[in-house]
């Protein structure tokens, strides 16, 4: 089950479960689309080097039994 992390690891923007601009790598590192497009070298994850895909949106009626993570991770971004 995806953690659905609550924020962009680069700019700390809130990314609620319904966020359409949340991007994840295969390790679930989570970034907003703006940071992926403007701050991350070649659109690759600065943690693992993997590519990004849009994070799926969990249906609202599934959140009660499968809540998103509340742990915020902020590691910053490497400028291009």
TrEMBL record:
Identify the stretch(es) annotated as Disordered.
59-80
Superkingdom of this protein's organism: Bacteria
Q: What is this protein called?
A: DUF1272 domain-containing protein
Q: Name one Pfam family in it.
A: DUF1272
Which organism does this record belong to? Marinomonas polaris DSM 16579
């Amino acid at each position: 089950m995806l953690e659905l992390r609550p924020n962009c690891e680069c700019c700390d923007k809130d990314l609620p479960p319904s966020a359409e601009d949340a991007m994840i790598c295969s390790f679930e590192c989570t970034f907003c689309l703006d940071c992926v497009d403007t701050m991350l070298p070649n659109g690759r994850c600065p943690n693992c080097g993997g590519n990004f895909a849009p994070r799926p949106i969990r249906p609202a009626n599934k959140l009660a039994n499968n809540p998103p993570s509340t742990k915020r991770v902020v590691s910053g971004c490497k400028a291009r």
